[in-house]
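About this split. The held-out portion is used to measure sequence recovery: a designer receives only the structure tokens and must propose an amino acid at every position. Recovery is the fraction of positions where the proposal matches the reference. Here is one held-out target exactly as it appears in the evaluation file.
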């Protein structure tokens, strides 16, 4: 009986250590984010793309690629896939939520949209670079495809 009580006490003492271990989903997200950093993308936790200006509640993850020395003239816009609101875009399933793309951006988007992983649900162009909002359900190969697509979009 004495040994049983000691065993139960040790089990209670060690039980919180099990909670520290990452779940498989958390490990997959960590691998994706590490692959993004290796590919030159910044991983940012931001308000959702449809959030009003000034919203501070973090609800989305975006992978951001800063422009190089000579930023292209893409304009400022937000394009979302399978979204219930916004203005229709020329590409099936996509809608403009904010702003309008320049002719250069439209030409590049034509080529880039087909290359995007299924996880990407929004693309944005800002004064500092381009970003993709995604659900982080894919694999590391999807991050490489995303990085290549963003680099093509942000090329000078």
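Reference sequence for scoring:
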């Amino acid at each position: 009986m004495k040994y049983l009580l000691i065993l139960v006490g040790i089990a209670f003492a060690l039980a919180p250590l099990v909670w520290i271990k990452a779940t498989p989903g958390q490990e997959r997200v960590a691998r994706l984010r590490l692959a993004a950093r290796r590919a030159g993308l910044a991983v940012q936790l931001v308000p959702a793309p449809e959030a009003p200006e000034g919203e501070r509640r973090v609800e989305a993850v975006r992978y951001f690629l800063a422009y190089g020395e000579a930023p292209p003239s893409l304009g400022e816009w937000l394009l979302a896939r399978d979204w219930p609101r916004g203005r229709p875009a020329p590409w099936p399933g996509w809608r403009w939520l904010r702003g309008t793309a320049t002719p250069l951006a439209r030409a590049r988007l034509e080529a880039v949209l087909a290359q995007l992983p299924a996880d990407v649900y929004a693309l944005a162009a800002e004064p500092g670079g381009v970003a993709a909002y995604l659900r982080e359900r894919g694999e590391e190969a999807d991050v490489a495809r995303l990085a290549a697509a963003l680099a093509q979009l942000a090329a000078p």
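Annotator remark: The helical segments are 2-20, 24-38, 103-112, 140-154.
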